[in-house]
Fold:
Amino acid sequence: MAVEGTWEIITGNHAAAIAAKLARVKVVPAYPITPQTTIVEYIASFIESGHMDAEYIRVESEHSAMAAAIGASAAGVRAFTATASQGLLLMSEVLHWAAGSRLPIGMAVVNRAVGPPWNIHVDHQDTMSQRDTGWLQVYISSNQEVLDTILMMYKVAEHPDVLLPFMVCLDGFVLSHTYMPVNIPRQEEVDEFLPEYSPPHWKLDPENPITFGNLALPDEYQEMRWSMDLSMRRALDLIEDVAEEFFQKFGRYHGGATWKYKVEDADYVIVTAGTMASEAEVAVDELREEGMKVGLLKVRAFRPFPHRDVAEVLQDRKGVVVIDRSIAFSSGGPLGIEIRSSLYNRAGSPPIANYVTGLGGRDITYRDIIKMTKDGIGRITSDRLRRPYYWYKLKPEYEKIELSEEVRI
Amino acid sequence: MTLTIHDLRKESGSYLPGSAACPGCGATLAFRIASRVLGPNTVYVVPASCFSVIQSPFPKSAISAPLYNIAFPAAAATASGVYRAYKMLGKDINVVVWAGDGGTVDIGIQALSGAAERGEDIIYVCYDNEAYMNTGIQRSGATPLKAWTKTTPTGKREMPKDMPMIVAAHRVPYVATASVGYPFDLANKFEKAKRIRGFRYIHIFSTCPPGWNSPVSKTAEVAKLAVDTYFWPLYEIENGKLRITVKPRKRPLKEFLELQDRFRGLSEEEIEELERIVMEKWNFLLHLEKSERVF
Structure:
């Protein structure tokens, strides 16, 4: 029986802060960066007004924010922080450290372009470039999904089979500063769903002293990395299970590692992530109005990557259009690369048109997604799919240069 | 209350036999004494440093207290997180950073400064062997003027950072210098630091025989001469008030320098220059000692 909470009209950042409060995180190291800042501001006000019982550490950098979260988590409590863009990149060293230490830290990353030049608007370059740090990454399309996913991901991350940190990635401004109705679950219900964190294997404890992280030589190291990979893969099923459990308790389902829209009978499937997926939903409806059988596969979990799920949905389609909001220079969109990897060596693997677009906040609406989808389908059906990826929505004079470049594959 | 050898003998400390330290390592001497005073209710956070190796490789450990290794620049921030978690859990545990000079005065200074400014309830220890010794003797911001390292093959041309004073300028409740040549002074500074709440900083002069090319049998002697020649004065700053804790009869700086090859080949003029710098610092400390508050 689903339990109704209270409805509020709030921003994505407010939703993330409320999620941290509902998860009863005990330590929050905080450092401001646009467009994340209001998350840590909300949390400061929750704590100082007595609505949240947590230690708030006003650190002097994002590197220290993550290092402090690591210390808190290693001492045995649930920790949370938030960042964006340059802040995430400054953390990079300790992102690896958090995952290697198997600490289920939670973090909201408000996706923002990377400098130079300075740009505070959305793209996914920041988080996609950190895909191999050992963090679970989920991309989000609504403020409700922000709140719900942070609660769900603590449950996944803290599972003894996983014990890896997680990022919930929400698009800068598009979600972070946009007001939407969000149902706030009751604290008692959240407490039942997400009990207090208790490290199953080790913590920094004088009663049971352990040296953690000392030198591991070549005969020990590789298995440690393997176990992280294994845990990451095991997290895939858990994401589905926890989403199901969340649905049973709260009556909301945003998908597991993926979310599918009208894919059953689709000839062509659009694959994308984040808020572009909400736009893509509208695009699918419009294209179906025009008589094209198109569906949507929204990738929520980029890490772990749901290869099997993706392959099962996309296999035997006439074509796939993957839309990325970041660029792996000279190689394509990070999502496009993964989708290819899911389908290669499989019978019935469809042609893939990969588009890189929307960088630095260039607005991508359902109209753009319709255009890319039609362009992709056109290339696939007329044998003009010659490049591993295409740039979309370049200014015309740049577009001209791009199209005149000889492409060597 | 003053700790004596009888008090120290009663405690076993957190340092086990069989570590991977070099012969004559000053850092291990410091850790042995410090951990005896701090006791078993202590958690150590260690950034990249010689101590990352000294503790010995997985799956063994030469440290019997809980110890967390962290990336080079992050020790003070990680210790802040550990302390805050214990605070939330209602646990009273000593949280100690055990860092080298590179991890303190160079790459770790930002996190250290942040933790000091916030007044985190931790003890930050810098065991200072005056260069990047774990990577094989490269100069750091703590390397003394004119000292040879592999990146200053003709001697360092800059003065080292005065790190204890930099920390003291954060107006933390306790800052002390110590030397492994004065073990009871060192022990008593830990004893005092343990009883104070807030950010505490202890900077230990720590002989490095392979890095300084000093005789392995003379670690204590070199560290004692550093104090007796006023090269490394021993003082503490408690709530802003400075006190020189050891005032030995001045010995010629040359006696300290000539025990280590890193200062080999200095001319008489250069030694005089160093002697002048040392006396300037000593007289400055005597002057500061008369002030009500240093910071």
